[in-house]
Amino acid sequence: MESCSNQKSVKQIQILLPWGFMLHHVRYSSLFVVDSSENLLPWGFMLANNLVFKKVHWAIGLDRCRNCLTGAAPITRETLEYFMSLRLPLYELYGMSESTGPHTISWENNFKIMSCGKVVNGCQTKLDKPDKDGNGEICFWGCHVFMGYLKKPEKTEEALDQEGWLHSGDLGKHNKDNFLFITGRIKELIITAGGENIPPVPIEDAVKAETAIISNAMLLGDKLKFLSMMLTLKVRPQTLDVDCITLAFCQQRGVVATKASEITASKEPRIQKWVILDRDFSISGGELGESVNVRNIYSTSQKFGQTHSFKDFSLFGLFSTL
């Protein structure tokens, strides 16, 4: 009888979970606003809390957890959103051993997803040598910053400048509300053959956010003329079959493969490089003929200065753009 009762309870929770998740999303979408003093609750939220969330918290052993904090390593947006859907928001901290722990902190009513929060009271943050997008090296200042490494003056000079700022080696930027976002490491900067400094993490994150089937992305281009990217698809670890999202994405485009290896081994024609031109083709410009089709591909590409760049391109099996 007890087993049947437990199974019935589990089925009830499974039925109510989507409803509870929806209410929780509405609740936290309105709550996590900068300096919001209103604790807005959608209709039915307290009922969902008692029927769904409390039981889920108890089932996973976190029914006595009051606040969940995360730090020391990057965390994905999917993980943050998953725990948020369970009414267990994860608040991010950011700091170093050399700063005696946290330097910035997120908290309820003072939260932005994927942000490390705001600087703690009595401390200051400086972005050293920011680029045009506002990304600079994150530097700490305050009483929590250490005095230096014991008997290692050279290493101390690398970490602390003459004004007492601790250089973290991390790249970051502030939004308009002064929330800190980590965008990469200085040592991870890609320096192209043309001398351009490119932080790879924002580009990699943008690709993964834009395309649901991409699991990981790695930008390449150090000392090269162009950027390339290695991509991996979302698969099931045991079988290496693509997951349901990737499978649906492929089927919508007429691809019947079920494994990542089958997709990459496909002999279908593929575009290996593309470029966006600064103006459209036209008859008056000479690119289009009277029947409005492209006249001479070679002369057109030569006119737009793309012939040599395409000849110099080497694919290595990667997706690539200029």
Automatic annotation (TrEMBL):
This is long-chain-fatty-acid--CoA ligase. The keyword Lipid metabolism applies. Keywords: Fatty acid metabolism, Ligase, Lipid metabolism. Residues 62-150 form the AMP-dependent synthetase/ligase domain. InterPro entries: AMP-dep_synth/lig_dom, ANL_N_sf. GO terms for cellular component: endoplasmic reticulum; membrane. Its EC number is 6.2.1.3. One of its GO terms (molecular function) is long-chain fatty acid-CoA ligase activity.
